[in-house]
Amino acid sequence: MENTEKKKLSTIKLILIIAGAFVFVFLAYYSIMMSMGPAKKLKEIEAGYGVKHDSEEKTDERFFTDSAYVSMLKEKSFLQSKIAMAGTDSIYMTLNIPDSTAHLEIAGVSVHSVRISQMKISKILRTGNNYAVQTMLASPMTIASYKATIKKEPLMIKMAPKDTSEFKPDVIPDTSDYEPVNYILDMDNGLRIYVYQEVADSSGSDRNNLFLFDLNDRLKTTWQSLKSAATFKVPEYHPFIKIRVPKADAKILYRAIPRKGQIAVYI
After folding, report:
1. Phi then psi for 48, rounded to 5 degrees?
2. Sign of CA dihedral 114, 119, 121, 126
3. Taking the chain (267 residues) in consecutive chunks of 10 residues, what is each chunk's mean pLDDT?
4. DSSP-derived 3-state class of residue 56
5. Can you spell out the DSSP letters for 172-185?
């Protein structure tokens, strides 16, 4: 009886050791695959927007490390995007990271300005191949999809009155004034823009909602990465820009931009 119990304990220990070893190996493998994501994305950007060497004339790549040249390249790319969007009859948004501002513009005229209180940017956008990144940003980005805590267009259902005597003016407040405002914009070039409301002066419910909204996005991304790693594929990486703005301004930006609206970024 005692030998049987010992054998059972030994079997359980062996199973736990094997399971622990498997988990450790998989986590190590997953970490390696995740670290390859940004490098793969940067290579894709360089392949699509990098310098195309001419067989007869080669570009001196030392220009791309010169701070003055890089500064002019960034300004040129930003202006090219703005000019392209100004030619449309639609409202669009510009993000000026050095100035910590966001603007809504129509035909090149700013109609609303927002001060960005906090921001975080992907490393490959800040320190990657400057020429490739700025060439990518030289064209306006179009919103491909989005996820938000508020409705894009508020909808109110109202019964039409039978006659003027039954007419009553609308006194229903905009409930989004009390709803947390956080959203994610997926751009057509793979870049992802996160806009979060400031939480310094927000209620506890707003803080909790922001935490859950961010957690849900992280869990979704982790699940997609796990599925890719399980099939021996490098998980897809999305360069990102995360900003925090006042709640009212966050709502204005979100509702003013069309569903397939355009955005220009100056980094």
Report:
1. -85, -30
2. positive
3. 68 84 85 89 88 57 73 92 92 95 94 95 88 92 95 63 54 60 95 91 78 93 90 92 94 94 94
4. coil
5. ---GGGTS--EEEE
Phi, psi of 196 (to 5 degrees): -115, 145
Rounded CA separation 126/97 (Å) = 11
Please name the amino acid found at residue 170. Answer: D
DSSP letter for each residue of 189-254: TS-EEEEEE--TT--HHHHHHHHHHHHHHHHHHHHHHHHHHHTT-PPP---EEEEEE-HHHHHHHH
The amino acid occupying position 193 is I
Per the structure block, which two tokens stand in for 22?
């498997």
Q: 3-class SS at 93?
A: strand
Write down all domains in the chain, each with its CATH number in brackets. 37-51+60-156+175-266 (2.40.440.10)
